[in-house]
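User: I'm new to structure prediction. If I give you an amino acid sequence, what do you actually give back? Let's try with this one:
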Amino acid sequence: MDYKKSVIYEIYPKSFCDTSGNGFGDLNGITSKLDYLQTLGVNMLWLCPFFVSPQVDNGYDVADYYAVDPRYGTMEDFDNLVREADRRGIGLMLDMVFNHTSDQHVWFRKALAGDPYYRDFYIFRKGGADHTPPTNWKSRFGGSAWEYLPERDEYYLHLYAVQQPDLNWENPAVRQELQKVIRFWMDKGVKGFRFDVINQVSKGAYRDDPDGDGTRLFTDGPRIHEFLKELNANSFGRDPAIVTVGEMAATRLESCYRYANPQEKELSMVFSFHHMRADFAGDQKWVLAPVDFPSFKQVVFTWQSRMAEHGAWNALFLNNHDQPRIVSRFGSEGVYWKQSAKMLGTLYQLLRGTPFLYQGEELGMTNGHFPTLSDYRDVESLNNYRILTRRGLSPDDALRILAKHSRDNARTPMQWDDTPKAGFTDGTPWIGVNPNCKTINARAELADEDSVFHYYQRLIALRKQYDVVSDGDFQPVTAEDDGVFAYARTLPGETLLVVCNFYGEDYTWQADRTLDGFRVLLGNYPAAAPTGQSIALRPYEALVLYRKGAQA
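Assistant: Good question. You get back a string of structure tokens that encode the predicted 3D arrangement of the chain. For your 552 residues, that looks like this:
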């Protein structure tokens, strides 16, 4: 698969489509929607974990890398999904959670039982005086990253939930076991792999971080490039058609030059998250803060330009299973909902890199706005609610923060139709359905040529039709303009110009070039070809302009 010309669609199986009536999405549900996905035009499906799991972290706590959790179906269902997807020209990408396992994995159970071979699969350390943890590192889900085992008078490391002990990648036997997992799924016909928080598998020194929470010590660690090269050589790198992407949590740009440069033989591309902090307060996620648009634009432009300079490839996204819905964060849920959803899609889909589209994004799905704590399921959200209220925040204020930032906003059931359960299930959904499924749903949007769905369909088609989208250089345009996100993609003899009004107000944009000769390829309002050097943009307006001939 030519990943530069492709669009990858992320599926959160638990929330996509339930065919069994148990309230959980399943593999057969994905198979039943392949025609819909083919109509949209995507090339590959990234499936979040469906392996055997206690579901503490919704499947990212894996208890068996080789087995399908019965709630999602059977291995025969998976094999059928591979066949049916391939018949439609769609590949499958699986999510590999290799930084940690579930505490129910046989490796960890044997480690706790005293088996010395499996004890070295994990990271155990003695604490300090008075049972203080070995270091001051913090879990990404809140609290200490070390869990005390009184019967052994020692701690184990868990950078995420207590039930997700970190694997010890310094042990060659661990790395060999994980390589076997990849080869198993390759033999099943899998064409891609996404690696969860993969840049945290090489830990630095196990010492206190006097200036932080330890992130800088366990991120982009000293052996990470060695480990990735070894994984590549012994598994997916044996098939040049395999597409890989690494989730790089809190990564450094300089590290990503190597992760995603084909000459390094590590990964095809990387996810970075710095641009998704635009509505944080500094590094603080669990606060209410306005979107810092100039910072967002600067981060995107910097990563676009510098990754290209170093021959590295970006994985493009604004939504995924860990991010609240982007139209609720950066757009509008009100009168300009449709325009802002289309604008945000335009903004990132045509950048340099491979776009990842998250289920329901093509419909303009919004945050769930859960009214009570009991509506939430996400371990990170529940942990941070407790932390916020312990700090003195009122329950109502803590809930307002969850309503904006909780990962559960992305995990409400896919909205297939306008029925009370959104066509997701005949049973009781594992998490609540967004009531706006009455108006935002696939059935309605497929019937409406002006819908968000049909707009995304046209966006996806542009990447396949125009080489300048897949292969063109990237150039920021009017980067200092705090109202508009504009950039150019260029090849010799052709220019694509993308102009996005980021706000719900009219705005006159002054270009840095003449716009004569450009024609409109796509826009979220009816628009005529521009002339001169300015455009009167309507609220959240997006324009995709194209010109053949000498570069503008």
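You can read the tokens as a compact description of the fold. Here is one thing that stands out. The first strand starts at residue 8 and ends at 11.
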